[in-house]
Design a protein that fits this description.
The protein is of the alpha/beta class. It is built from 20 helices and seven strands. It has three domains: 193 residues, Ribonuclease H-like superfamily/Ribonuclease H (Nucleotidyltransferase, domain 5, 2-Layer Sandwich), CATH 3.30.420; 88 residues, DNA polymerase, domain 1 (Orthogonal Bundle), CATH 1.10.150; 90 residues, DNA polymerase, domain 1.
């Protein structure tokens, strides 16, 4: 095993228009696919914008772009748009790249490819070590990439992430070829590229960790009000909300419902870098929650399907269908060496088990409406139909 070291150092970020134009020319003259990665400042900043964009291409070299200094990337995008872009976990980077005008038309995702190839662990460092025999240190993966200037050691780490992707793509593609899964992977890569952003939650404050422990509507109203105030302030100063006021603090005071700003300040569980400096903001939010006439429901509105935990008692036939289908997909997962969640999403399987389409045509339609790809439908239809038949037979035999 060898230790990973980026080539071509010392590295610096491309932040001027002149350097950018030279980089576009060099990348355009290279050969083969382009490895791409982006670094954000999750956990430090409110936004999910890219603070560093890395690219590598054979014959061109490694390039570290500063999107904050450069702004848009129209010329670069025009030069490479129709070339294959290699990512590791593309779904994490596509949004922030599109935000600055970088829009691929064809991708290869080494993380998703590794999943489809049946690798037990698919993190970049693990896959690189297993397939390339290179130890890839990940000590800067959770760094604050909005830092300026970026330390040299961070830049070397960022460069290595993309320099190894071309070789990694070749290894994973070879495995997929040997397993007969290249066409499956191609469908999945295209689906990742075309996937629409998730619609905003109707009540995003319900993402609060621990909100399920709040039983009283008034406590939920206070939690909602605090979440909204925190989110607005975090957006204003571009800071991760949890750094200003942790979820645990919001839940704690929503349970105790302090009667004054002084009582709030003396609450031991009320922590965070802005818990005292913005005390008036938080107390005003609590007061709005305490006086609100629009009290939240105890539970969020779902998709119209009851919680599967209630099915055994209240909907036994649907429960038998779901359990039989889960068992069948588990066996199929072992046979194909593909994770069960990649065969069909748990949410879609639950919907199918609940609605119980009465023909193959209706089942195919439901699968398509749920976003299933052609290869998934090909495996899912006989698997689900046989599982549902077994579920009915188990009822008759009992």
């Amino acid at each position: 095993m060898t230790e990973g070291t980026a080539s071509g150092g010392p590295f610096h970020t491309i932040a001027t228009h002149h350097e950018y134009q030279l980089a576009v020319e060099k990348i355009s003259s290279g050969e083969g696919p382009i490895a791409v990665d982006a670094e954000r400042a999750s956990g430090f900043r409110y936004s999910q914008r890219a603070y560093l964009i890395q690219m590598f291409r054979e014959g061109s070299g490694t390039f570290l772009f500063d999107p904050i200094g450069l702004g848009g990337f129209d010329e670069l995008n025009l030069a490479i748009q129709n070339v294959e872009w290699i990512f590791h976990a593309a779904s994490q980077d596509l949004a922030c790249l599109r935000e600055v005008g970088l829009e691929p038309t064809k991708i290869f995702d080494t993380e998703l490819g590794a999943r489809l190839a049946g690798l037990p662990r698919v993190g970049l460092a693990t896959v690189v070590e297993e397939l390339l025999g290179i130890h890839l240190a990940k000590e800067h993966s959770a760094a604050d990439w909005s830092t300026r200037p970026l330390p040299e050691s961070w830049l070397e780490y960022a460069a290595l992430d993309v320099e190894l992707l071309v070789r990694l793509r070749s290894e994973i593609d070879s495995i997929l070829h040997d397993q007969g899964k290249q066409s499956i992977a191609a469908e999945e890569f295209q689906a990742t590229l075309e996937r629409a952003p998730k619609p905003s939650m109707a009540e995003p404050w319900r993402r609060l960790s621990g909100v399920h422990t709040l039983k009283h509507p008034r406590s939920l109203a206070v939690a909602r009000s605090l979440w909204v105030s925190r989110d607005e302030y975090a957006r204003e100063i571009d800071t991760a909300p949890g750094r200003l006021l942790p979820d645990s603090s919001i839940v704690a005071v929503s349970k105790t419902l302090p009667e004054s700003a002084k009582a709030l300040a003396s609450t031991k569980e009320f922590t965070g870098r802005a818990s005292r400096s913005q005390l008036e903001l938080w107390w005003n939010a609590i007061e709005r929650g305490l006086t609100s006439t629009d009290l939240p429901e105890a539970r969020a509105q779902g998709d119209g399907i009851p919680n599967p935990r209630t099915w055994p008692d209240k909907h036994p036939e649907a429960d038998r269908r779901l359990r039989s289908a889960k068992s069948a997909f588990s066996k199929l997962s072992e046979e194909l060496a593909i994770p069960v969640e990649n065969l069909l999403t748990p949410e879609l399987l639950r919907q199918i088990a609940w609605n119980n389409p009465q023909s193959s045509e209706l089942l195919i339609e439901a699968l398509k409406d749920g976003g299933a790809r052609n290869w998934q439908i090909e495996f899912a239809v006989p698997t689900i139909e046989n599982a549902f038949v077994e579920a009915v037979q188990s009822t008759q035999d009992s």
